[in-house]
Amino acid sequence: MNILVTLDRRYLLPLRVMLTSLLMNQPGETVHLYLAADDLTEEDVLSLERLCAPHGACIHPLAIQDDWFEHAPTVRYYSRAMYYRLLAAQMLPETLDRVLYLDPDMLILQPLHDLYNTEMGDHLYAACIHKGLVDLSTPVNKIRLSTYENEGYFNSGMLLMNLPEIRRHVRPEDIFDYVERNRQLLLLPDQDVLNGLYGERILPLDETLYNYDARHFREYLIASQGVCDLDWVMRHTAILHFCGKRKPWLRAYSGRFAPLYKHYMSIAERTP
Amino acid sequence: MNILVTLDRRYLLPLRVMLTSLLMNQPGETVHLYLAADDLTEEDVLSLERLCAPHGACIHPLAIQDDWFEHAPTVRYYSRAMYYRLLAAQMLPETLDRVLYLDPDMLILQPLHDLYNTEMGDHLYAACIHKGLVDLSTPVNKIRLSTYENEGYFNSGMLLMNLPEIRRHVRPEDIFDYVERNRQLLLLPDQDVLNGLYGERILPLDETLYNYDARHFREYLIASQGVCDLDWVMRHTAILHFCGKRKPWLRAYSGRFAPLYKHYMSIAERTP
Fold first, then answer.
1. What are the structural domains, with CATH classification, of chain B?
2. A146 phi and psi angles, rounded to 5 deg
3. With an 8 Å Cβ cutoff, are B263 and A234 in contact?
4. Which pLDDT score is estimated for B135?
5. How high is the ipTM of this complex?
6. What band does A132 get if pLDDT is binned at 50, 70 and 90?
7. Quick one: pLDDT at residue A79?
8. How close, in Å, is residue B23 to chain A by CA atoms?
9. Shortest Cα distance from B28 to chain A (angstroms)?
10. Fewer Cβ neighbours under 10 Å: the N or C end of chain A?
11. Is B258 on the interface with A (CB under 8 A)?
């Protein structure tokens, strides 16, 4: 199972927590972790290796070439790292045909085997729409990015990639072009580009399984007419996503899933 | 590390959850699990073996001899299993010098190495007093069991046993005698006997570390003047005890630590 993460050093702690939860819940699976990062030190990589080794997982830091970004426009305070998940196919070995991108602000609570082996046909990506937020954000996003044709706005925190199709259809110059033309409209550049350029070629997956917004337990419960209660969530939800500004690694965080997050944080901290 | 559990079949699910959390949080430790039970089927034992095998843990079902209980008085609806933790030294191999008894309604969240290696001197047991409940229950317990000399009433859910000392001082006939004489006063027979007969020879340990009552987060937080907040608990508490009638494996349970419990329950369920 190939996993892609892109991060900067400020997210090293949550990355370690996410990886701990990932590895502890994939028994019998060999995980290959591809790491796209600019500023990781050798010690950072070693610390990730210590985390992965007991689970038989391998780390593959990716070489990122400056000339790929020669013509890349920048957006406000975002670094070029905002392009990494969009350019995954350029960065990953050509032998790979599938990779699962995961944000660091997540917990992985179940085996990802079924997700990883989703039949993708000629879709470029598989991802989830956060419908819980549709009423608030979608009309704005639809106007902003002219994605009237799509049923919603995909969250790019979990992104399953069909690499052969992406290599055929996703061109860096299209992405840079799109960013250049829409610079003023981009709130979350990578996610906006993904939806704006490729929204119609993304296979929608069930967000309660694979990109559950940890802030919205009550909304999911109501929308599912009581099906998605806590027992259901803890039995079925594979990816819990701590979206928004209040992050679970902060001391003040006390959301419903805080004990679960902080438990995995403590396990991650045991391996220095 | 020798672990003792005593159970009946109705507690097989929670036992599997407790063991899952125990084994996942003892990396590098070989766990020997001693099982005192009357009504486990061969299939039950096999299912526990499947749970233990991936962690390199071994199961040792204990032979329980009927004649040990010839003179044992019965108390209300309790079965003879109420005596098992009190008679642990009789049941366990003579070569063992230490064992940690654990109730099934617990989660083990940290390595137990420090607890297990507690210096016990000539104490028979090490256990925790639930001080959070002292104001409510201790005066009653003290009158009931005449343990005025003790500082409190030990919870017997976590019981570290100094087996050589126990073999020298704990006699089954004393226990049966005590039960016979106090039959009308015993609410929780095993725990009451332990406190009544051996309370002065129990080494008190910190309940926030080793027998944290999951119902009393706010009480611990206040009593510790804010030290035992959620971050502290998830970093330090090794044994979380779901005391009381509302049990976390029931669908209706929604206490603060419910997501954590139900996550481990889901992991336990993955191994049939």
1. 2-269 (3.90.550.10)
2. 50, 45
3. yes
4. 47
5. 0.89
6. low
7. 80
8. 12
9. 10
10. C
11. yes
